[in-house]
C-alpha cells in the first residue's frame, strides 16, 4: 500500500521534471552567417540563413544541430516544399518534413551562448 502511494506521488513529479527539461530553450547568438536546414543534417533542404549577431532560442540539440523553431506548415505541393530555397525539397521524414510540417535547424558550431560585444 505504501509503495503504491509513493509511486503515485513521485511519477507526476518526475514527468513534470522531464517535460520542463525538454521544453527549456537556451539563448544563443549567431557568430557567422548560418544556414537554416529542414533537419539536423547539412544534407537536408536549405530554408534560408541567419545573419551574424542574430539572437535565437535553441529548443533541442541533435547531432551537432540546434532546432530553433517548432514544427510549422512546410507548404508542400505535389510532395515538395515551396519553402526550401536550395537542396533536397521533398516532403518526407528523411528531409525533416513529416506530415507536411517542418522545423528549422542550424549548426551549433556557428552559435555562441555569449552575446556579441558591440564595437564602437
Helix/strand order: HEEEEEEEEEEEE
The radius of gyration over CA amounts to: 19 Å
List the uncertain runs.
2-22
Count the helices. How many? 1
- CATH fold-level topology: SH3 type barrels
Shape: elongated
Write up this protein.
The chain has one helix at 2-23; strands spanning 26-30, 34-37, 46-50, 55-58, 60-62, 65-67, 72-73, 76-77, 80-81, 101-102, 105-107, 111-112. By secondary structure, the chain is an alpha+beta fold. The longest helix has 22 residues, at 2-23. A hairpin with an 8-residue loop joins β2 and β3 (46-50). The protein is elongated. The model is unreliable at 2-22 (pLDDT under 50). 28% of the residues are buried.
In short:
With 120 residues, the chain is of the alpha+beta class.
Keywords:
120 residues; alpha+beta; SH3 type barrels; three-stranded antiparallel beta sheet; 1 helix; 31% strand; elongated; disordered N terminus
Amino acid at each position: 500500500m505504501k509503495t503504491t502511494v509513493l509511486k503515485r506521488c513521485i511519477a507526476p513529479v518526475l514527468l513534470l521534471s522531464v517535460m520542463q527539461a525538454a521544453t527549456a530553450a537556451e539563448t544563443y547568438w549567431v557568430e557567422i552567417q548560418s544556414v537554416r536546414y529542414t533537419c539536423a543534417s547539412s544534407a537536408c533542404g536549405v530554408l534560408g540563413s541567419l545573419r551574424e549577431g542574430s539572437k535565437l532560442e535553441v529548443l533541442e540539440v541533435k547531432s551537432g544541430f540546434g532546432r530553433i523553431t517548432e514544427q510549422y506548415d512546410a507548404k508542400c505541393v505535389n510532395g515538395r516544399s515551396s519553402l526550401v530555397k536550395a537542396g533536397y525539397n521533398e516532403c518526407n521524414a528523411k528531409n525533416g518534413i513529416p506530415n507536411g510540417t517542418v522545423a528549422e535547424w542550424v549548426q551549433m558550431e556557428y552559435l555562441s551562448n555569449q552575446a556579441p560585444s558591440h564595437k564602437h
